Amino acid sequence: MSLVYAVNIKRREQCYRTQQETQKILSINHLHLSKQFEHLKIKLEVITSATNNFADDNCIGRGGFGKVYKGKLLHSKGESIVALKRLDPTFGQGNPEFWKEIIMLSLYKHENIVSLLGFCDEGNEKILVYEYASKRSLDLYLNDDDLTWIERLKICIGAARGLAYLHNPGTIGYCDPIYVETGLLTKESDVHAFGVVLFEVLCGRLCTINKKDIHQPLTGLVRRCYKEKTINEIVFHSIRDGIKPKSLEAFITIAYRCLKRNLEDRPLMTDVVRTLESALDYQVDQLNTLSLKNDGGPGLSTSKPFEDDIEAEVNSYFHQMFSGQLTVDAMIQMLARYKESSEKREQSIFECVIANLFEEHKFFNKYPESQLKAVADLFGLLIKNKLLTHLTLGIALRSVLDALRKPADSKMFSFGTIALEKFLERLVEWPQYCQHILKISHLRDTRLELVTFIEKELHKIS
Ligand SMILES: Nc1ncnc2c1ncn2[C@@H]1O[C@H](COP(=O)(O)OP(=O)(O)OP(=O)(O)O)[C@@H](O)[C@H]1O
């Protein structure tokens, strides 16, 4: 359901261009574009037959382009159910928007953006053919009592990722100066529109009002409540009590920044994605977050691609640590400095070390003993020194637990015990986690002192 939204919010605010600008784009690009996207063309007769000549029964919605129909037809990728948007010139969105949609969606594909399967440009008809999003549009679910806060956050994250993707390779990659000049691709207005969507999701209602509607327009209401610190009162009733305060705070802060009147004050979509991910992270218990990830959930991956020089520097630190030139303690001190550094490069090095460590985790059982000890110490000390937070902490704790569950004579068990010894003093912070550890019978059999220590610590807080 986020798919339809992710794409459509782009258009909502783009009513500011002048007639002149539109004409300029049209005259220069039309023929050229038509040839370039020849392979996506679908004949009008195919479309009229699929929609039973645009029968009302097949109409599934209406938006800024005009009516949307459902139908089954053969396109470049085979036969499937599709959504067809029939451009209605009287609606205001014309040729440039039509071509922009074709250009953007055929060049840039992303799992959170609905795919364009083809188009028709014959006579007076302009029709866009999309994959059919079986869950339709997010607005249908806004005031659904069953849509939980976590589900809402995941939808927002998916849509934000799609939009962030379009903002990065999309506009830079194609970079038609005419589009950029005329403001047809304005990232900041997308961000504003996305902020509105975020508040719609939070408040369980659309931003707009119609004559019958008793609501005030959402943005005005949000601004007032934000200033008066009463946003809680407009949060949708079914989710209000379940949202953890930090999750709500992260969500509102970023959503409100999207609505800033000053364009420069609005965040980049990549910041929006990151903050929404932390909002989810605050909401979900860390170990649960992990199991979602393992279940092929929403892809809460912590690893990001890093520049080659960052990777090279990080590799050299690992190399030095494994060869003994750099002690694990020195590595930890350096990482603690880098984590808090105001320099972006140093922060990236910190993130890259953590990402590499997690990626390497599956190969630890192949490591020679001395290297395995070094990474186990590093793991344990990262946890002890609070250098991992939220999701990464959850992943590290889970890795240690999984390792402890391996047979007592295995390399991974030894990795688990070495790491655990390093952060024993923090264990009481996670009583549930302790219970999982205490259930490992071979740990009791082989390392009774660790088990006794944990039991005593738990006893103190009970
Ligand atoms: N790919 C699709 N799959 C399923 N339903 C769709 C699809 N695209 C659109 N729809 C349905 O048609 C409706 C209208 O969609 P459309 O994208 O034209 O406009 P919108 O999202 O309401 O806003 P706007 O065009 O003004 O940005 C949607 O609300 C949705 O219910």
UniProtKB/TrEMBL annotation:
The keyword Transmembrane does not apply. Keywords: ATP-binding, Kinase, Nucleotide-binding, Serine/threonine-protein kinase, Transferase. The keyword Kinase applies. Residues 54-364 form the Protein kinase domain. GO terms for cellular component: plasma membrane; plasmodesma. ATP binds at residue 85. One of its GO terms (molecular function) is transmembrane receptor protein tyrosine kinase activity. Gene3D superfamilies: CCR4-NOT transcription complex subunit 1 TTP binding domain, Phosphorylase Kinase, domain 1, Transferase(Phosphotransferase) domain 1. This is Protein kinase domain-containing protein.
